[in-house]
Amino acid sequence: MLESARMLSVRAGTGDHRFTGIWFVLVGGRLLVRPYYDSVTGWRRAFLREPRGTILVGEREITVRARSARGECLLDAMDRAYAEKYPTPGSRKWVRGFKLPRRRRTTMELTPR
Predict the structure, then answer these.
(1) Which CATH number belongs to the domain containing residue 61 in this structure?
(2) The domain containing residue 81 runs over which residues?
(3) pTM higher than 0.85 for the full model?
(4) Displacement of CA 75 from its chain's centroid (Å)
């Protein structure tokens, strides 16, 4: 199901957070996400405070746990996966932006619980 999805929705934490649509990639079967705007009230910071949450793929809700993802090889593979998955001219700006060091440092892996 994730393999064919262009986006997924994420709700961080167990409180009354709303679902937010985000880009994601699968690298070696791992679900990786990275915020473009890492705001104090955003989904990544909520996951840092409480690593449990939910993703919505189609109509299916899946409980997940978030953790920071590290390793240059993994982050490089994620950059390539973003470029392959989102190749349109309108996406190029965002794909380039995801490669910046400040955004690479915010990479998270979401695993089913």
Answers:
(1) 2.30.110.10
(2) 2-112
(3) yes
(4) 12
Half-sphere exposure of 92 toward its Cβ, with a 13 Å CA cutoff? 3
The residue type of 64 is: V
CB atoms within 10 A of CB 95: 18
Please report the pLDDT score of residue 4 as a whole number.
Answer: 82
Measure CA of the first residue to CA of the last residue in the chain; give whole Å: 17
pLDDT digits (tens, 9 = 90+) for 34-86: 999 999 989 999 999 999 999 998 888 999 999 999 999 999 999 999 999 99
- Work out how many domains the chain is built from and give that number: 1
- What is d(CA 24, CA 109) in angstroms, rounded to the nearest whole number? 10
Q: Kind of pairing, strands 30-33 and 52-57?
A: unpaired
**Residue whose tokens read 């910071």:** 45
pLDDT band at 27, cuts 50/70/90? very high
DSSP conformation letters of 22-88: EEEEEETTEEEE--SS--TTSHHHHHHH--EEEEEETTEEEEEEEEE---HHHHHHHHHHHHHH--S
